[in-house]
Amino acid sequence: MHLTLMSLLLIFGCSLLAGALGALVGLGGGVLIVPLLTLAFGLPIQYAIGVSIVAVIATSSGAAAAYVRDHITNIRIGMFLELGTTAGAITGAFLAGLLAPQLLFVIFGVVLVISIAPLIFKLGEELPAHVQNDRWANWLHLSGTYPDRYLGREVSYEVTRTPIGLAMMYGAGLISGLLGIGSGTFKVLAMDTVMRLPMKVSTTTSNFMIGVTAAASAGIYFSRGDIPPLIAAPVALGILLGALAGTRLLTHMSNKLVRMIFIPIIALIAIEMILRGFGVAPV
Amino acid sequence: MLKYNTQQEEQTHPPAASHSEYRPPDRQEGIVASPTGEKRADFSMNTVIGWILQGGVLISAAVIGIGLLLLLLHAGQQSSQQVFVFPHTLRQVGSGLLVLQPQAFVALGLLLLIATPVVRVAASIIAFALEHDWRYVAITFVVLAVLLLSFLLGKGAG
Lengths: 283, 158
Hints:
Number of strands of chain B: 2
Helix content of chain A: over 70%
Structural class of chain A: mainly alpha
Strand order of the largest sheet of chain A: 1-2
Distance between the termini of chain A: 17 Å
Oligomer: heterodimer
Largest sheet of chain A: 2 strands, antiparallel
Radius of gyration of chain B: 23 Å
């Protein structure tokens, strides 16, 4: 692979976009970075995945810094659910090698396709209605408020089906440990569809969490030599700037719009996973 | 210790301000008056975590930037093969830094970036302790322990 200034700038530009999108929908941007590096630049998949782990952390920290300060992220929900994701990730690392990754990619791709249905069903919903705290949410003080510039008021919300949400987070961690991918999609789905949080709280809290999940495996990738600095540098800087821009955009968007952006991206990820499972594309 | 967000308070919405006029409540002071007039002590939590994330991001971006700057100064000497020859242990990064190797600076920046979420979790323990929220001190402590365990296991396996 020959690295020119031009290609560095191109990678930087695409990373800007990936960072902005990732900051909006609570994902790591790996979905754009991995195909870009493998298909457009011919980077071997092992390096592309290493770089995309860095991209996830950059998106997470870059965006969460702003979201935490703006009080959109629910720190308590994030910290509590990280119990599930970290435990899942470590289990996944143990099980990796015992299970066929090809099959897992197909299964999770299909699960993602199915999970698009409730999202489409909820397209017209700006804020979840008639949600009441369950016992766990009360005990853990999970409910909260966030300032919504689009609606022009402070929005308060409650949290339901907390145990199912925690179990889904365990699954999300399991997937990232097994397959070496970010699992922001499953985190957003668990918070939005299961625990019934407002969409913006779901995406920003997912953003907050994905950095921790990714950091758990990033150290391994780094020491294995899977993260080439010259390629990771323009990606990291581009993502950080893009994520910053994304956070400025999100506050002025409606929850409906965020969900509408999320749906095609989740479809794209599902297709990528299924293709990878069948070994069709090196993405 | 103020416990906020109890059931009753959740039900009351603040009067909707007109779209253009709305500004999120000023949280600079760290104590925010909730719609019911109750004060809310979340100064330590959001401020501490916000600063750590912001600081980690800025420092790592600056170090990566220094590496790229050195790379531009060294331009021409960098052959295409060297893209995949780079320091990937702490010792290699350290010795590369001493001779101003561009890749070593970028690698250090990446390591700082990777460390940021871990530092955030560790600092959350302190922040929750400042709020006397022992439940969350315990939760966060477990998260950090599992995270560190995964680092150790990864080292053993990798």
